[in-house]
């Protein structure tokens, strides 16, 4: 995918932008050799429902929309919870934002994805003394 210059990119300002972000990101996930098997073969994600959940989650996260019902869990969002998978998920999300948007909400989206990583990602194991 070709990236537009940052001066041409606009910020995430409306629900249609959230939908485009989610659609572009999920397209990357379904094409990714590391993540695709987990979503498609193992978890057997039902994509129409998953996309709806993701639209609602990111709309609520970025705009405070009330379209989503309840809180999403890592499983609802399709977050892979193992190290390399989780790093790839974050990397693809960050790349999708950077390729399509620039501005405060775009930065907020990337920051919130990193917060999800910190909240739901693998926890470091402390060495025993």
Would you mind describing this structure in some detail?
The chain is mainly alpha-helical and 129 residues long. The protein has a single domain, classed as Globins (Globin-like, Orthogonal Bundle). Helices cover 62% and strands 0% of the residues. Helix 5 runs antiparallel to helix 6. It starts with 14 loop residues before the first helix and ends in a 9-residue tail after the last helix.
Notable characteristics:
129 residues; Globin-like; 6 helices; Group III truncated hemoglobin; Globin-like_sf; oxygen binding
Which secondary structure elements does this structure contain, and how are they paired or packed?
Layout: H1 15-31, H2 36-42, H3 47-63, H4 74-77, H5 83-100, H6 104-120
Helix pairs in contact: 1-3, 1-5, 5-6
Summary, kept brief:
One of its GO terms (molecular function) is heme binding. This is Group III truncated hemoglobin. This protein is mainly alpha-helical and 129 residues long.
Number of folding domains? 1
With helices defined by DSSP (H or I, 4 residues minimum), what is the helix count? 6
Structural class: mainly alpha
Silhouette:
globular
- As an assembly, this protein is single chain
CATH superfamily: Globins
Count the beta strands: 0
Q: So what's the CATH class? A: Mainly Alpha
Strand content: under 5%
Order of helices and strands: HHHHHH
Which parts are unreliable, with pLDDT below 50 for 5 consecutive residues or more? none
Protein name: Group III truncated hemoglobin
InterPro entries: Globin-like_sf, Globin/Proto
GO molecular function: heme binding; oxygen binding
Organism: Hymenobacter gummosus
């Amino acid at each position: 995918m070709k990236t537009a210059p940052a001066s041409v990119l606009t910020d995430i300002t409306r629900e249609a932008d959230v939908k485009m972000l989610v659609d572009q990101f999920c397209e990357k996930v379904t094409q990714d050799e590391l993540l695709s098997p987990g979503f498609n073969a193992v978890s057997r994600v039902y994509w129409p429902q998953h996309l709806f959940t993701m639209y609602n989650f990111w709309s609520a996260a970025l705009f405070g929309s009330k379209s989503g019902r309840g809180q999403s869990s890592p499983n609802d969002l399709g977050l892979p919870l193992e190290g390399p998978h989780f790093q790839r998920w974050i990397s693809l999300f960050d790349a999708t934002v950077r390729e399509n948007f620039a501005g405060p909400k775009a930065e907020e989206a990337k920051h919130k994805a990193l917060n999800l990583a910190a909240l739901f990602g693998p926890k470091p194991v402390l060495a025993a003394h």
